[in-house]
Amino acid sequence: MSAAPKQIPPRAGFEWEKLAFDLYPTSGFAKYVWTAETGEWGPVEWVKEPYLNLHVGNVGLNYGASVFEGLKAFRHADGHIRIFRPKDNAARLNHSADAVSMPALPEELFLEGVHLAVARNGDLVPPHAPNAVNGSLYIRPLMFASGANLILAPPSEFTFIVYVTPTGSLYGAAGTKAPAIDAFVIEKFDRAAPRGNGSAKLAGNYAPTFKHAAAAKKAGYPLTMHLDSATRTYVDEFSTSNFLAIKKQADASQRKTLVVPESESILKSVTTKAIIQIAKDFGWAVERRRVLFQEVKDGLFEEVAACGTAAALTPVRSITYHDSPETTKKVSIGDGENAGPGFLSILTQLTGIQSGVQEDKHDWVWPKAGVDGSV
Length: 375
Ligand code: COI
Fold this sequence. Notes:
Elements: E1 29-35, E2 40-41, E3 45-47, H1 59-63, E4 66-68, E5 71-75, E6 81-84, H2 86-99, H3 107-119, E7 136-144, E8 157-167, E9 181-185, H4 210-218, E10 223-227, E11 235-238, E12 242-247, E13 257-261, H5 270-281, E14 285-289, H6 293-297, E15 301-308, E16 312-322, E17 328-332, H7 341-354, E18 365-366
Parallel strand pairs: 9-10, 9-16, 13-14
Antiparallel strand pairs: 1-2, 1-3, 1-8, 4-7, 5-6, 5-7, 6-18, 7-8, 10-11, 12-13, 12-15, 15-16, 16-17
């Protein structure tokens, strides 16, 4: 990378104000292949069409050896593009890869692939706006078993790709004015078993939630939530994101307490890690522990939010659950309508750092000088 990275301006004529959480055409994606023959990841290849040519017996599609990541790139006021905490995603990808017997990917290759995919699609990073209200470039690293095998065993070839798409917010508005949404606890299905793979970002952890999430959405709940599968008494997470809460205070002068559920079945969110640090920087107390769903029912939380790369920090204004097989009960959070001030202040700080209008004192954005459009 050169000392003075080449800037890539946003694409003229693109309707940034209409940006959805969707896939848009891009200039291509980065691809690496690992083979048993070499025992290594090969050099990067740039693929222009959004397609892959795969053997029908590939283990990724047949047996679910497929893991992914989600991270974002933002345009700062100096016109340069920077990516939020990619090294954390590199580490988590390897945790997920190990869960389904795939080879580890060196951090430098992860960063190279992410950088290349962003640099060659830099015109799709939305124009700078404080707190990223114009959206961001969503980056999707994906690793899967591309080799073929009929037996249940890792094949001799794996593929790692990085593709991107410009995105607005997953729920409601990007930036600081997130509207609060309604959540529904899924009763008929559990996301992850104890000693299972809930902490890994396996492709297979997501598709089984689709039909339940679609039914909930139809009933007016954009967000679905999972309890622990062993006892159904603890909060695990939402189908798309982590669960976070702020404890109800006796009076407004008290120090705020962020509550973060701890469970081996929860995805280790990079955004949650950042929010814990921001809460500490604000002087809040942080409790990382098992969270009883009864605490939600008893109204012990003044705010709840969904937290992840795509969700950012989405306030939750109610949680509805089955109190019997036939009936449901709704717990209102805060005023039951609007986002509370605690999570909005954290969201403002998070998106401020991501968009470069707040100091990056924990060294989260990368590369410091900006993405280099000359690669
Ligand atoms: C992300 O937040 O990056 C995810 O992978 C969640 C998915 C709903 C897009």
